[in-house]
Amino acid sequence: MSDIAIDLGTANTLIHVKGKGLVFNEATAIAFDENTNAVISFGNIAAEMVGRTPPSIRVVRPLSTGVVSDFAAARMYLQLAIRQVVRYNRWSPLRVVIGVPSRISGAEFKTFQDALDSTKISKIWAVQEPVAAAIGSGLDFGLPKGCLVIDIGAGTTDLAMLSLGRVVQSRSLRVGAEALTAAFTNYLKNERRINVGDKTAEEFLHAHGQAKLISRATGKINAVDMKTGLPVQSDITAAEVHGAIKEPVSLIVGELRRLLDSVPPDLAADILNEGIHLTGGGSLLKGLPDLLKEQTGLQCNHVEDPLKAVVEGCGVILDDLDAYKFVLESMPDEIRSSSI
Ligand SMILES: Nc1ncnc2c1ncn2[C@@H]1O[C@H](COP(=O)(O)OP(=O)(O)OP(=O)(O)O)[C@@H](O)[C@H]1O
Ligand SMILES: [Mg+2]
User: Is residue 199 part of a domain?
Assistant: First the structure.
């Protein structure tokens, strides 16, 4: 019997194999030949092709806003990824712990289950991603004490108040780092009259995006002038980037305020000492901890490894299923395994 832990994310997929650790960390993308439908590549190589393919190649990103949006592509991607890292078959089936968004519906979870090729999988346990991130980061959330985790991924933001090993209150937003990229490319199109590819815009945001204006440095971006149709290099100021992503960032801040407002006062007060734990790639946006502190008065710190916390937490659970039985049993009914 092989056991694996998976974080199947909108942008990145990570797999941990029991006894081996993290063995797969690739983009969630798969490229098909348009004519034959054969798989050309998957993972980082396929993601590199986005925006640069000839008409005969189609690159699919099987997840959108944290859930499966192209079932066939998700299934194919998972089969290829899992087969690359572990041997399994009917006689030696897989057991899987998978991270899922905290407010996923039963129907959405079913698509994850189906995509995992249920015939050769003997068991699937789902764990809400903020819970997995807390476990993976060694946060002490088993005590009767509030622990607030915000996971800002590519497609979703998951906010959860944990206590006694369970989610007390959670909120989620179908807004993540990709919404920031979209807001930035729209700004460039509408205000600067230049077109920029998603990958270029994303890389520019990693280097120059700021949730709170701290530095005033200017950056250069390669684009296409919409008037002339010619490639140009444009200077973009820090204030412009900041302004362009302000709206999606404010949605995240608003959701945090709503969560704090809805939890029992004693739990909210615990956060005064502990602070807020940030995880997920989108939380790496510069100035985000400062902005959240300014808006809530609470300390905000990144967990040790924001891009790996969820899979590491799923891996910790997998390595000691008995110790974490109480966590698996406390999952909402929609995603709870029927026989733990
Ligand atoms: N320094 C940075 N600033 C802003 N965004 C960043 C930075 N580094 C990474 N990101 C963004 O983080 C995202 C990837 O994060 P992560 O792997 O946590 O997402 P995911 O788990 O695939 O998505 P989701 O959880 O929403 O399904 C990408 O969209 C990437 O652009
Ligand atoms: Mg994620």
Answer: yes
